[in-house]
Amino acid sequence: MKGKCKICANEYTQSGMSRHLKSCLNKNYEKIIEEGQSQEIKYYHIYVKGTNWSDYWLQLQVKADAKLSDFDKFLRDIWLECCNHLSEFEINEQHFTFSGLNMNHKIKDVLREKTKFSYIYDFGSYTKLDLNVVNVFKAEEREEKISVLTRNHQPEIKCSHCDNLAEFVCSSCYNGGWYCSDCLDKHEENDCMRGTDNLLPVVNSPRVGVCAYSGS
User: Which of 2, 64, 137, 161 is paired with 199 by a 20 to 30 Å CA distance?
Assistant: First the structure.
């Protein structure tokens, strides 16, 4: 699955994007930062992917003084939020929960280069993410605490009943839960207990088809 680099606009595969971004960040930020004109600040280059849906991934630029609560909100907004479920980071066997004060820790206080950690949203119909600090670097300060460096292109998921791309998904259908608009009548034939109320749009997120998630 490919994605586009937001810095140079070139496309790379998931496996090659981290290597590219490490080089692209160093090369381009050297040109951007001019001595005496811009203030350098420390950033974390963090790679995020779905634990069970690894075709969905993000690579982010995160300010060192951003809080875990800022990171939590960003992940909810771009990928996860549906019903205000609980969430949690696990970093070096320590748990930082949505409802706990320890979400006030700053990124620079809990993460180091090459740190691997995880995040979970919703402890019922959960969505779990794997995260990795690829690099720590200095760059011109931006207003945003967290920004997207790259994101996977929308995976092409076929309708379960024809060769069209799926537009809807039903998490309650045990067989053939992906539907294009032309095959919605097949959903009725599946005798889904929740009917059309359980149909959700196909979105670019590892939470596609889960709970009531309908996109960022």
Answer: 2
Sheet holding 116-121, edge to edge: 94-97, 87-91, 116-121, 127-140, 40-50, 57-63, 146-151
Q: Are 107 and 68 in contact (CB under 8 A)?
A: yes
pLDDT band at 200 (very low <50, low <70, confident <90, very high): very high
Q: Strand, coil or helix: what is 109? A: helix
In a 10 Å sphere around its CB, with 0-12 CB exposed, 13-18 middle and 19+ buried, how is residue 59 labelled?
Answer: buried
Q: Which of 56, 61, 88, 83 is closest to 72 using CA atoms?
A: 88
Least confident of 92-106, 138-152, 166-180: 166-180
CA distances to 40, 46, 115, 153, 164 from 131, in Å = 25, 7, 8, 19, 33
Report the C-alpha gap between 88 and 99 in whole angstroms. 9
Q: Does pTM top 0.85 for this prediction?
A: yes
Distances, alpha carbon 187 to alpha carbons 24, 98, 163, 171, in Å: 46, 36, 16, 11
How many other C-beta atoms can be found within 10 angstroms of the C-beta atom of residue 20?
19
Q: How confident is the model at residue 126 (pLDDT cuts 50, 70, 90)?
A: very high
Is residue 36's pLDDT more than 50? no
Give the closest residue to 121 by CA, choosing from 25, 216, 19, 2.
216
Q: Is the pLDDT of residue 116 over 60?
A: yes
